[in-house]
Design goal:
By secondary structure, the chain is mainly α. It is built from two helices and two strands; from the N terminus they run E-E-H-H.
Length: 84
């Protein structure tokens, strides 16, 4: 009986889904992509910021600061991708 990729004990050789780096990849719950430590942190933060921006908007609260933070995070991710 042969094992599929999930049963293999070999580490993943796929690069980070954002920047293309290879070693030390992580998965976020509910996501199939794998990320390096920096990108994993930024993707998780972007998910939380999106959730908070949506909640603030629905509740009629100010979200300008969260939107600005999301913009900074997006620029950082974009720079990382462009440098890869």
């Amino acid at each position: 009986m042969s094992g599929g990729p999930k049963s293999s004990e070999e580490p993943s050789i796929l690069p980070c889904s954002v920047c293309g780096r290879g070693p030390g990849l992580f998965e976020l719950p509910g996501r199939s992509e794998k990320y390096c430590l920096q990108c994993n942190t930024d993707v998780a933060t972007s998910i939380l910021l999106t959730t908070e921006i949506d909640a603030a908007t629905r509740a009629g609260r100010e979200s300008e600061g969260l939107v600005a933070e999301f913009g900074q995070l997006s620029r950082r991710l974009l720079q990382r991708v462009q440098l890869a």
